[in-house]
Rab5 GDP/GTP exchange factor
Amino acid sequence: MFLSLTLFSLNRKKMNLKSERRGIHVDQSELLCKKGCGYYGNPAWQGFCSKCWREEYHKARQKQIQEDWELAERLQREEEEAYASSQSTQGAQSLTFSKFEEKKTNEKTRKVTTVKKFFTASSRTGAKKEIQEAKAPSPSINRQASIETDRVSKEFIEFLKTYHKPGQDIYKQCKLFLDTMNHKRDLSIEEQSECAQDFYQNVAEKLQTRWKVPPEKVEKAMDQIEKYIMTRQYKYVFCPETTDDEKKDLAVQKRIRALHWVTPQMLCVPVNEEIPEVSDMVVKAITDIIEMDSKRVPRDKLACITKCSKHIFNAIKITKNEPASADDFLPTLIYIVLKGNPPRLQSNIQYITRFCNPSRLMTGEDGYYFTNLCCAVAFIEKLDAQSLNLSQEDFDRFMTGQTSPKKQESDSFSPDVCLGVKQMYKNLDLLSQLNERQERIVNEAKKLEEDLIDWTDGITKEVQDIVEKYPLDIKPKNQALAAIDSENVENDKLPPPLQPQVYAG
Ligand SMILES: [Zn+2]
């Protein structure tokens, strides 16, 4: 396969551990078309670029048609011979032969000249329209989608006005294509994709040669055309029921969930999320890649991937304080995909591959980042102990959820452990300390309360004892005082009263 990911096992020698460790490496040449034409390749095209893949595909199909044809011819001959020998009826023989001729012609026109067929109005009328309408999702989503479709149509027409006469022709071609596609819903998704690719190629050629549109305006027109037709095609060709796209989506999602324990260090991701700016970039990159699913136009989806990739490059650049290399990029992209677990990842990749204007995927930054994303997904599917620099036992234990590497590392943080995890363990630590303190305070408070109760009881008892021992006996006032005074007859013989004196100590 084209994505022969060069995963090297890492030397577990300590001296290599931090600086030299390389878990994931994809040679940049492996991102290119395996035919050596210089365009970006793609796993969906078996490592070819869109152009070479179509050539190969056509060749293979022509060969198949030729073989079918030869087989049909032989069977027909045998049948004819058998028939002739048994009955030798002239009329029946020519009938069979004419049927065969008819079949042959049909096959030729159907399979060989798909391109031409696009630009001739189909004889069949909208019999299938009701079926397509019935397939549509919930009414509210539908309404929203149709508002968007109307808006895109208006914008498209406004845009085409600036192209004058060619604008009208472009519009006609698009309409024709959409009509044709409406009658081709029973074709396989690959065949529908081929129709779209033929259409892009044809319109681009016409723009340049027939309508003499200047080159700088061709690309812009192609983008608008893609937007117009794919906004309308989306609901029929995104993750269609006839494919196993949805099954693949679920498989990837499950796989990513199972790999939740993978740390940046295992992937050798040069991103330090403790730096607030870096963590900001990581969050933005994750948001971008998740946002891809909400777009309907392949090119808008590609733009999300490109935005995500640029945030990744920035995160690396800030961490390393130097421009990011392509070698740093892929592992970080893998890390972002693992963290984000973007919805319907395979469906989106398939949809872009099938229905994006191929020139976008073959060259330029959009093509480069898209190829890297495909590579990242292929890597995630193959991820093993070796590529993460783990022993098979550890890998198995982490995969089955028996233990988590984060738990093991919590006591001794390596300097580049994820900021969030580090913070979480710090917080847990703090919480348990606070808990201890709170318990201590509650206990002391209880003791204080008891002491207070004891003290109050003690005082009450003492007072009661004294009151019992020395009951307060109040005698009548005037009588007692008068008696003391009246008996005080020998007052003169008493000693003088004591004077207050200060004693030291
Ligand atoms: Zn190629």
